[in-house]
Hints:
This protein is of the alpha/beta class. It has one domain (16-316): Alpha-Beta Barrel (TIM Barrel), CATH 3.20.20. Helices cover 42% and strands 13% of the residues. The protein has an eight-stranded parallel barrel with strand order 1-2-3-4-5-6-7-8, surrounded by seven helices. Keywords: Metal-binding, Methyltransferase, Transferase, Zinc. Residues 4-310 form the Hcy-binding domain.
Amino acid sequence: MSGPTTWRLPETARGWVTDGGLETDLIFHRGLDLPDFASFPLMDDPVGLGVLDDYYRGYAEVAAREGTGLLLETPTWRANADWGARLGYGADALHRVNRDAVTHLRGLADEVPDGVEQVLVVGVVGPRGDGYLAGDLDAERYADYHRPQVAAFAEAGADLATAYTLTTVAEAVGVVRAGQAVGIPVAVSYTVETDGRLPDGTPLGDAIEQLDAATDGGAAHVLVNCAHPDHVSPGLSTAAPWTERIAGIEVNSSRLTHAELDEAEELDEGDLPDLTRRTRELAESLPSVRIVGGCCGTDVRHIAAFWDGWSPVVARGH
């Protein structure tokens, strides 16, 4: 295993736009059927691939309009062994689709409108289990499990891998170690419950500090995703040094709990003006946030509203 990564998110004048809730947008707004909430099979469907391209181009337009950087993130949150097997994808097929996702987004990156400061292609990793339930505590088992996916991203030339909606420190450590083993930087995004703690009860600050201690600071940066700003705030101590590790937030539109979202049959798109205000306040309260995007229930309208004439970097004066 190699040592800690020295990769850090490049500086841009206004920060980084990323996308919204891919799967909820595809299901509720675009009428697609996504078994097991998996969007990666669309890579093998010409019609589905066209829908994905349209989705990503909307965020490129936001980044161009606001003069920001753009993170193009692969639709591979479910493209790991356990979920892939449920959908008929074995190891070779998963390797191919993870590589293809990076290659395809690299092509889209070459077509972004003028005004986008910089583009990074990000390979997206999802949790081994359910995104809302805490998993086991064996970091090395997680490293072995996630290594094939991050290796595919590395082979395809992704700039970065980001593991989203993680519920335990152990899985976060495992993904970072997998990235270290194959030579690709890995960022970690935790999800939190309404009290600002991880689903297993770990305070967010402890989860960040434990991750850094176990990987010698190996994570490229940390994000928080799949939670309303009101759910993230209780877990923060803005004067604590660990807040400097949080480079991004990707918020839910809804104040519903994860359990309630699991049962919801209609999409809660939230109160957009209120969500915009609270998302901006949260981003401005954290010293290092440069990435702002969305998660469940959000789409390009939300991201455009968050960024309309605003930047977390500019708002903080750095």
